[in-house]
Design goal:
Blueprint: E1 2-7, H1 12-22, E2 27-33, E3 38-40, E4 43-46, E5 57-60, H2 64-77, E6 81-83, H3 90-99, E7 104-107, H4 113-129, E8 134-141, H5 151-163, E9 169-171, E10 185-192, E11 199-205, E12 210-216, H6 221-234, E13 240-242, H7 244-248
Parallel strand pairs: 1-2, 1-5, 2-4, 5-6, 6-7, 7-13, 8-10, 9-10
Antiparallel strand pairs: 3-4, 8-11, 11-12
């Protein structure tokens, strides 16, 4: 039985995690950390990690600042951390890497297993077509999402760019420039509206054909399922920095 501590337990993803974990027999939620002291059912909720009377794998769905706090606390108390928050700065990411020298840190801007398979497929497609096809990424999310482009869109772009030897320049807005598309552009477009959970498309555009890789999340449950799998995986690992590539290794011949 793996004990889980959820940071951001009052939020939509926190509630989804509680529901998903309640249906399992290999893990349980022992505490939450959020803005107010209280409880979610029988689960006690604290406002700060220092108040925790228990240990467990931390799953963070909060904010960049919250993610760093979780990692710092985890490093100081040997608690593995699954960091799912988006919008982290380079400084925040560096703090996670520092923490990973003392405790296992799992980092992904998108916990969906399907999205991470899409990222691997995008790498392979770039290897095959990137020199001849233009590449564009379109992401769509609900109107409450704060960051744009999404962390997932940037994950996809970074994977493509790494595969292409970092030759691409990211372009987010073409409205102020009147010129044809450059060969080394990688366009990233964001759509915000309604209750879209999350959709990502990667378009490889050739002269007479277009190949599209697409992933659509039907509910937040896919992110919760991925986070739970990551927590179970991380509980058995040594200190280090882990990603979905590590979790998928063995499931995909390319990972």
């Amino acid at each position: 039985m793996t004990d889980i501590i959820i940071q951001g337990i009052y939020g939509r993803m926190g509630r989804t995690l509680v529901e998903k974990i309640s249906e399992r027999n290999d893990c349980r939620v022992v505490a939450g950390v959020d803005r107010e002291v209280g409880s979610v059912g029988k689960i006690p909720v604290y406002t700060d990690f220092s108040q925790l009377p228990c240990k467990g794998v931390i799953i963070d769905f909060s904010s960049p600042a919250g993610a760093v706090s979780a990692a710092v606390y985890g490093a100081a108390h040997s608690l593995p951390c699954v960091i799912c928050s988006t919008g982290l700065s380079k400084e925040d990411e560096a703090a996670l890497e520092t923490a990973s020298t003392k405790t296992p840190i799992f980092r992904s801007a998108n916990m969906s297993l399907g999205v991470n398979v899409l990222i691997e497929l995008a790498r392979q497609t770039t290897r095959a077509l990137g020199g001849e096809f233009d590449i564009e990424i379109v992401e769509k999310h609900h109107h409450n999402k704060l960051d744009a482009p999404s962390g997932t869109a940037l994950m996809i772009a970074d994977a493509i760019n790494a595969e292409a030897g970092d030759k691409y320049e990211y372009v987010y807005d073409r409205s102020q420039v009147r010129k044809k598309r450059e060969a080394k552009e990688l366009g990233i477009s964001a759509v915000r509206g309604g209750g879209i959970v999350g959709e990502h498309e990667v378009l490889f555009c050739g002269p007479d054909e277009v190949l599209t890789l697409q992933h659509s999340a039907g509910s937040r449950g896919v992110f919760a399922d991925g986070a739970i799998q990551a927590a179970l995986y991380l509980a058995a690992q040594k200190p280090g920095y882990y990603t979905m590539t590590d979790l998928l290794r063995g499931k995909l011949p390319c990972a």
